[in-house]
Amino acid sequence: MLAILRKEFNSFLNSPVAYVVMGVFLVATGLFVWVFPDSSVLDYGFADLQTLFNMAPWIFLFLIPALTMRTFAEEKKAGTIELLLTRPLTDGQIIGGKYLACLLLALLALLPTLLYYYSVYQLGNPPGNIDSAATVGSYLGLGLLAAVFSAIGIFASAITRDQIIAFLVAVVGCFLVYSGFDSLASVFDGAPAYYIGQLGIAAHYRDISKGLIDSRDLLYFLSLIAGLLLATRLVLQSRNW
């Protein structure tokens, strides 16, 4: 699995895809956090990074599928998937290596945003007047969100040989899981609205972003990731049916 991880990660770094994705993410979040007057921290007057954590999921919704769309679809189109599957590797190792490479690159894009935290920390009055617990929770939530989106993207790439179709399926899947259940919950009232909302990512992401790290939220994310990776494994195993 580590060999697949290194191969995939190096192939990303040797192509412009990784740098375009990271550049677009940083430019987009930077504009929303520091430049656009409706969302700028400087105009908002409060020392927090809520703008970053509100906008990053929507940017990830498009950028992570752009990373994952080639993982299996390109192998199928080039005819190298059969060669890969005949290597002394299990399906789980292949999926795990490709999945971790995409997730690692997404997390790498998040790393420079720590400069935003440092800047807001220093700009606070007095310096350090920022809710660090909520910030740590929000970064954890973004990491888990990136993990789910990567799993959706890997699954979408496994079911087709066309990268564009894989991208579109992943974007729609990420949107439905992140925002679809919230939209559906708004149609109902009371308990049904609550339980429908809990099926989506947004409710759990909001809870973690408050700095309240609940085992139920972690279990939700981990179960969703495991389910998607298992579905990807079933897709690959279908070649033997």
TrEMBL record:
How is it placed in the membrane, per its record?
Multi-pass membrane protein
Give the InterPro entries listed for this entry.
Answer: ABC-2_transporter_component, ABC2_memb-like, Motility-assoc_ABC_perm_GldF
Q: Name one Pfam family in it.
A: ABC2_membrane_5
Which keywords does UniProt give here? Answer: Cell membrane, Membrane, Transmembrane, Transmembrane helix
Q: Where are the transmembrane segments?
A: 12-35, 55-73, 94-118, 138-157, 164-181, 218-236
Q: What is its main location?
A: membrane
- Subcellular localization, as worded in the UniProt entry: Cell membrane
Q: What is this protein called?
A: Gliding motility-associated ABC transporter permease subunit GldF
